[in-house]
Write a structure and sequence with these properties.
Elements (H helix, E strand, L loop, with lengths): L2 E5 L3 H6 L9 E5 L4 E2 L14 E3 L1 E7 L15 E8 L2 E2 H10 L4 H4 L5 E8 L10 E6 L2 E7 L7 H11 L7 E3 L7 E2 L5 E6 L2 E7 L2
Parallel strand pairs: 1-11, 3-8
Antiparallel strand pairs: 1-2, 4-7, 4-12, 5-6, 5-11, 6-8, 9-10, 9-13, 13-14
Bound molecules: magnesium ion (MG).
The site of magnesium ion (MG) has 7 residues, from strand 1.
Length: 203
C-alpha cells in the first residue's frame, strides 16, 4: 500500500505558509513505514527541532483504478478516517529554499499517525464534515471539508491519472489552517465531528 498526501488543499493554510493557492492538486507520497497505528506514541526525531502537526481527513481506497473520471471517483473509497501529516517544518523550509523534494521533511518514519475509520455511508454529505485536533485538551486546529479547494472526487481522479490506485491505499486530503509545533509530552486527540478516532502521545 501507499500513502498519497495532498498539499495546500485549504486556501487559508496555503496563506499561512505564504504559499500560492494552487490551480491544480499538489501531491506527494509517504512510505508505509510512516504509519503509526493503534494509538502508538510518536517519538520526536533527533533530526528536527520543529515538528508540526497537520490534521487531515484520510480516504481509504477500496478498489483499484487508473484514469478515474471524477463522476465515478466516489466508488473508489468507502471509509473516511483522520490522521496527522507530521512535517519537519525546519527541514521542509530548507528543501523549499533549494527547490528540493520534500521527502526528508514529510516521509520519515512515524510521520503518519492514523486513527480509526468511519464508513462513508454514515456521512450525510462528504462535502460538509467537521474535524478537529486537541493538544492536552485544547482545540488547536479545526476544519470543514466545505473549505477544500479540491474535493475528494477531484483528488482521486487527479492522482489516478499519474499513479494507479490500489485497494488499501490511503489519501491524506490536506490540512486546514492552524498548523503548529508539538512538544515531547503532548497528548494529541483527533476527532471527526464529535467522535474521537485518534489519541496518542509525543515521546
Ligand atoms: Mg499535509
Amino acid at each position: 500500500m501507499k500513502i498519497i498526501c495532498i498539499g495546500r488543499n485549504y486556501a487559508e493554510h496555503a496563506k499561512e505558509m505564504n504559499a500560492a493557492v494552487p490551480t491544480e492538486p499538489v501531491f506527494f507520497l509517504k512510505p508505509d513505514t510512516a504509519l503509526i497505528r493503534d494509538n502508538q506514541p510518536f517519538y520526536y526525531p533527533d533530526f528536527s527541532k520543529e515538528i508540526h502537526y497537520e490534521t487531515e481527513l484520510v480516504l481509504k481506497i477500496c478498489k483499484a483504478g487508473k484514469n478515474i473520471e471524477p463522476e465515478f471517483a466516489h466508488k473508489y473509497y468507502d471509509e473516511i478516517g483522520i490522521g496527522i501529516d507530521f512535517t519537519a517544518r525546519d527541514i521542509q523550509a530548507k528543501c523549499k529554499e533549494k527547490g528540493l523534494p520534500w521527502e526528508k521533511a514529510k516521509a520519515f518514519d512515524g510521520s503518519a499517525p492514523l486513527g480509526m475509520f468511519i464508513n462513508k455511508s454514515k456521512f450525510k454529505e462528504v462535502a460538509n464534515i467537521n474535524f478537529h485536533l486537541t493538544i492536552n485538551g485544547n482545540t488547536v486546529q479545526k476544519g470543514n471539508t466545505g473549505d477544500l479547494l479540491f474535493s475528494f472526487d477531484t483528488v482521486i481522479s487527479y492522482i489516478s491519472k499519474f499513479i494507479t490506485l490500489k485497494t488499501g491505499d490511503l489519501i491524506f486530503t490536506g490540512t486546514p489552517e492552524g498548523v503548529g509545533p508539538v512538544q515531547i509530552g503532548d497528548k494529541l486527540e483527533a476527532y471527526i465531528e464529535n467522535e474521537k478516532l485518534l489519541n496518542f502521545e509525543i515521546k
